[in-house]
């Protein structure tokens, strides 16, 4: 049994604001230690409940946050940037299931540090379904026939996961008070919860179906301002809807849509505000 674990940072226990997740800020080193410990709870529980191999993908910012020297020794870590498939790099049809740890709510929604990929995105749609990082990543897993067994993060991420994926196991390690204030479990209590929920998620696997993406998905990204949409629309094959900040892309499959999203958001970040 192979388990895939994608680890973001905004949904990790006790992390409440930018100082915990930005490598230039004073709380970041504490944040990455808690992040690494949190990954280890999930990894150890997966091994304890039948996994023979666990692949972990560092999925936050420059994707080099997890402390490999502190990870479970039997884990393999995908780390660094640029990854062709970003938060789901290395995920394929050989896995028993995927788990998303440290995840957060999508852009424009309540939730600690809520966003989708960049802070210039208001919404991403696959056909008529609004998705954040969680949903888009789950679609990629579904393309490979892999169910997302567990999402761990704040309460709003859990609600988003439960709305998308029936019977998914969620582990709520903190509750949102505002976008930069949480009521959090301690790392020890969060660890106990993650061990329990990981075991439950593996046991519950037969009750969770992959989130199957549509064939030839139409992706639309609504940006925060017009300049970002202009930059994103420089990518060949896009359509900028006139007098809106929405840019659409007709993809052959969800993998192409995902890579198009990465390019479009990278271009959008070139926008200046002065």
Instruction: Report strand %.
Output: 15-25%
Mean pLDDT: 97
The end-to-end distance, rounded to whole angstroms, is: 52 Å
Low-confidence stretches: none
Helix content: 25-40%
Number of strands: 12
Order of helices and strands: EHHEEEEEHEHEEHEHEEH
* Main structural class: alpha/beta
Shape: globular
Largest sheet: 7 strands, mixed
Strand order, main sheet: write it out.
3-2-1-4-7-8-9
Number of helices: 7
How large is the radius of gyration? Answer: 18 Å
Protein name: M55 family metallopeptidase
Organism: Metabacillus hrfriensis
Tags for this model:
single chain, 12 strands, five-stranded antiparallel β-sheet, 274 residues, seven-stranded mixed β-sheet, globular, alpha/beta, 7 helices
Report on this model:
The chain is 31% helix and 24% strand. It is of the alpha/beta class and 274 residues long. The strands form 2 sheets. Strands 3-2-1-4-7-8-9 form a 7-stranded mixed beta sheet, with helices on both faces. It has a 5-stranded antiparallel beta sheet with strand order 6-5-10-12-11. The longest helix has 21 residues, at 28-48.
